[in-house]
Amino acid sequence: MTSLVMVVSCPPTRLLASFLQRGSQQASKFQLHTGTPSAAKDYYEFLVLGGGSGGITMSSRIKRKVGAENVAIVEPSEKHFYQPLWTLVGAGAKKLSSSSRPTASVIPSGVEWIKSVVRELDPDDNCIRIDNGKKIAYKYLIIALGIKLEFEKVKGLPEGFSYPKIGSNYSAGTVEKTWKALQDFKEGNAIFTLPNTPVKCAGAPQKIMYLSEAYMRKTGKRANANIIFNTALGVVFGVKKYADALEEIIKARDLHVNFRQNLIEVRPEKNEAVFEDLDSPGSTKVMSYEMLHVTPPMGPPDVVRGSPVADVAGWVDLDKETLQHKKYPNVFGIGDCTNLPTSKTAAAVAAQSGVLDHTISLVMKNQKPVNKYNGYTSCPLVTNYNKVILAEFDYSAQPLETFPFDQSKERLLMYLMKADMMPFLYWNGMLKGYWRGPAFLRKCLHLGRD
Q1: Average pLDDT over residues 1-19
Q2: FAD/NAD(P)-binding domain spans which residues (predicted)?
Q3: Can 337 be counted among the known catalytic residues?
Q4: Active site (annotated) includes residue 201
Q5: Which tens digits make up the pLDDT trace of 216-243?
Q6: How many domains does the chain divide into?
Q7: 229 and 162 within one domain
Q8: pTM for this one?
Q9: Which of 10, 127, 337, 379 is catalytic?
């Protein structure tokens, strides 16, 4: 945090530094929970499905409403990851170990941890089934099951990761392979992909491209590298202001972007990747690579897809303003497993948690929810080892920036926020239920104008 404060020079950023200092002092009072998984009871007032960012955050908030003994989290994993850090792990700027903590340490003290997989959702009977067949009933349900990585939908994966030139920043088991492939790169094509599905943190596939290019320049390999971004989308970024800034960087650094190209197969024994042209169905192109970063296809969790809580595409079907289920008033959702029409990021979860907290409070009183989620999300676009464009926007894909300066410019301050401040806020603020995004800070910095 010292390095961040040192670069602060203007009054708005001094306000941010003061805010962070107070947060640090408050966080020092927090005690880590060191509980262990428990035998599930038959009924809980609040049942939270998923121990990721949304599930832990909402459990912390709900605990303060109804008491820890009335809340349970269903989560099978022993480790909890702060996944936004994996962009920097894949580029060698952070260690994988710095992105994880034991799940037991982040579950709110006193909240029951049911270490299991959710096998069935039965909202008509207000219950779920877990992997041992046990039925657990609830009064209120919060679904925070995240998104499913589907590497297997690319022919040749995931077995292709056993070869040395393929990596992916999207899983704990493959992110370090990205860094190894980058270090081993000598010359040829370095290809980065974005699939034809919803993904979490849609900016991440190109962040690693910018960092790889910077690393190659630093190590003298850039002259022999052809850096390619094959994206299934038709634009480099969904918000024009930031897309324009990124296009300038792409041009200045001689990067090659091919739109509407979807990875469908890898041939790791030949170092070949096969792409489908989405504007010409059935047409494919084979490209050789010396390094390949794969962003996998993604989809809703299996237990959600086809269940009563899902929409036609398989995502949890929510009112986009209240985060309450459209059919089941005692069911709520948050994060990547939902059909909220905004980018799936940790920043979005933080903003959603504040709205959902208010929604649940009113529903518990048989009142109509009034707080409205505006679709706020954030994507720190890492463009170098010391620069970030901080993209912030809403449902309308319009910038919704926190700071009173142009965030489409590359800045060191924004990199320090990404690398150091945001992880601190995540572990010590958001997961504890005390950080709901920068809306209040934005109003202060913009003198009350949002």
Answers
A1: 38
A2: 46-157
A3: no
A4: yes
A5: 999 999 999 999 999 999 999 999 999 9
A6: 2
A7: yes
A8: 0.91
A9: 379
